[in-house]
Amino acid sequence: MKMPMTRAADRAYDEIRSLILSGDAPPGSQLTEEHLAEICGVSRTPVRDALRRLEAELYVVRSDSQRVFVADWSLEEVEEIFALRGMLEAHAAGRAARRLTSAQIESLRGFNADLRDAVMRPAPDVAAFLEANRAFHNLIIDAAQSPRLAANLATLVEQPIVRRTARQYGRDQLERSMREHDELIQAFASRDNGWAGAVMTAHIRRAYHAFSEAAPRLKAAE
Amino acid sequence: MKMPMTRAADRAYDEIRSLILSGDAPPGSQLTEEHLAEICGVSRTPVRDALRRLEAELYVVRSDSQRVFVADWSLEEVEEIFALRGMLEAHAAGRAARRLTSAQIESLRGFNADLRDAVMRPAPDVAAFLEANRAFHNLIIDAAQSPRLAANLATLVEQPIVRRTARQYGRDQLERSMREHDELIQAFASRDNGWAGAVMTAHIRRAYHAFSEAAPRLKAAE
DNA sequence: TGTGACGCTATTGTGTACAAACCTGCCTCG
DNA sequence: CGAGGCAGGTTTGTACACAATAGCGTCACA
């Protein structure tokens, strides 16, 4: 039995990405190839590779001349991201409604059960909620069977600031997400692509408003 | 006066990209780093860089293990690309309607004049048409002032197969494009973002149908 | 004291060497 | 005659050395 032996470039990608998502590398901070190479225990070459990918996904930006910084998104940009996500993910939901197998729909039910577990405990487990939510949305994107759509959405789904903000959500918001997922599953089960798309549009839009209410509280807490 | 001195990686990117767009590197053919390095007159390092970018934009795909091939798109994928472009570019047009300066609207008129020149000559100049069309659409995307939207559209706008198919278009199709651009300009001038978005949706959708009629003729000609 | 030039340092860009992985064709053995 | 495996060549992955460039502080001079 041999370990899958990931490439150094992939390990560097995962490592740097989680530095950004966790907030250890705060927005606006500079990332130098050498420093990252040291952290990841590899040479600069695979780090360069990883940074190119992270740049394409807009996790990092390059200054006018080639220095790399962690992306720092304004609230306006987050609004735009939600608008794009709404369009693309509604499209994905419509396609998925025509393509999901019944086994996949069963999986969606499973993810939503996990989500319920995370929400219903005395103190909601936000990390578990986010994980189940991620699995739910990714399965839909996958079922849409459009590599290009998936590539575009990949740059939109994981937003550090939204992730951090989610810890501020009240139980009511989390429960609403859960109910909206239930309705999506109904739309999928009846193969109604128009319904699925509309519910997804509303779901993302509502998520945006939850975010924009919570974000100022987060700012204030800093 | 010193030349801007582009980086080798950028030159390699442009070179490889035009190999793909021109058809010199046909869909499905393998691209090896060493061969490309030779063609571009640089070492493998900047070629790797360029290939990463082209991969992110889906001009090339990587096989299960890391060999690079020119992407070969099915007609279904092209349909999906037009669907995504329609959504995103309509969104861009809506944003642009609220942001275009009058100088920019004047530029759009200029591009459409170029387009008219290209169409109205005895034998329509398709290359000039495509160039003016590209400039027109890019200005709108730029005016939308959304880097993320621009990044997503960048992977959708230049499609080798569509480019080749355009040579099959009749004068009527080219004239319709021109008239639709005129209507877009009207919508922009009146700052009506709903109108602009709707016209753009129709424009892209009509372009898809022009493509899907011409594509079989292209296939037959091979 | 303000400003511009200079040089130092930090950082990225490129070339090259070598290692690892992979594909291919052939050869052996059942 | 087919399957498996074992070279050998091809291609990509990684490290490292050195070159080029941008940012920054300092110092001289007006």
What's a concise summary of this model?
Chain A has 222 residues and is mainly alpha-helical. Chain A has helices at 8-22, 33-40, 44-56, 75-99, 102-120, 126-143, 147-157, 160-166, 171-189, 193-221; strands at 30-31, 60-62, 68-70. Chain A has 10 helices and 3 strands; from the N terminus they run αβααββααααααα.
| Rg for CA atoms of chain A | 19 Å
Beta-strand content of chain A: under 5%
**Biggest chain-to-chain interface with counts:** A-B, 22 and 22 residues
Count of discrete structural domains of chain A: 2
**Helix count, DSSP H or I runs of 4 or more residues of chain A:** 10
Descriptive overview:
Two copies of one chain form a homodimer. With 222 residues, the first copy, chain A, is mainly alpha-helical. Chain A folds into two domains: 8-70, Winged helix-like DNA-binding domain superfamily/Winged helix DNA-binding domain (Arc Repressor Mutant, subunit A), CATH 1.10.10.10; 75-221, GntR ligand-binding domain-like (Four Helix Bundle (Hemerythrin (Met), subunit A)). Helix content of chain A is 74%, strand content 4%. Chain A has ten helices and three strands, in the order αβααββααααααα. The first copy, chain A, has helices at 8-22, 33-40, 44-56, 75-99, 102-120, 126-143, 147-157, 160-166, 171-189, 193-221; strands at residues 30-31, 60-62, 68-70. A three-stranded antiparallel sheet of chain A has the order 1-3-2. In chain A, strand 2 and strand 3 (68-70) form a beta hairpin. In chain A, helix 5 runs antiparallel to helix 9 (171-189). The mean pLDDT of chain A is 91. The interface between A and B is medium-sized, with 22 and 22 residues. Chain A binds a DNA duplex (30 and 30 nucleotides) through helix 3.
